[in-house]
Design brief:
Number of strands: 5
Shape: globular
Strand content: 15-25%
CATH architecture: 3-Layer(aba) Sandwich
CATH topology: Rossmann fold
Number of domains: 1
Strand order of the largest sheet: 2-1-3-4-5
Distance between the termini: 12 Å
Order of helices and strands: EHEHHEHEHEH
Structural class: alpha/beta
Length: 148
């Protein structure tokens, strides 16, 4: 079986590349998917829909969020497992939303974050199947689940 792993969350570090490389090292049968990770492109996803309302910030974000959700909802629904990364520097509300979608759909997910944000993520972690602090731990969980 080829597994589809959806990678959600923080876009400012190379955690995705580390997980992809680790799974490739073990030759795991995995296809990775993700939301758009180019911040500017994601923010501009709705720009093709025409000029914004006078309250530009809200309407631009609103349109772009909906266009991005076309991709996100489809990829979450099609994944076998998700990895949801929360970084320390920014609040990843989109990642929390993805975790909620996974929980609602019965999709297993692994959270990936440092110990210093355990408390604010207690509900997100409570619904996850595993909590990891490093990409290597995520690779180890995937290796076990896929190869066992």
């Amino acid at each position: 079986m080829n597994w589809t792993v959806y990678l959600s969350g923080e876009i400012h570090t190379d955690w995705r590349e580390q997980i992809i490389a680790g799974c490739a090292e073990y030759k795991l049968p995995v296809t990775f998917t993700s939301a758009v990770t180019n911040h500017a492109a994601s923010d501009a996803a709705g720009d093709m829909l025409g000029p914004d309302h006078p309250a530009e910030g809200f309407w631009r974000d609103h349109k772009s969020a909906k266009v991005n959700a076309i991709r996100t909802q489809n990829l979450v629904q099609k994944c076998d497992i998700a990895v949801i990364r929360f970084g320390d520097q920014y609040k990843q509300w989109n990642a929390a939303f993805d975790a909620g979608m996974c929980a609602a759909l019965g999709k297993p997910y692994i959270t990936l974050h440092d110990e210093n944000i355990i408390h604010p993520l207690k509900e997100v972690d409570g619904a996850s199947m595993a909590w990891a602090t490093t990409p290597e731990q995520v690779v180890d969980v995937l290796r076990y689940v896929i190869s066992a």
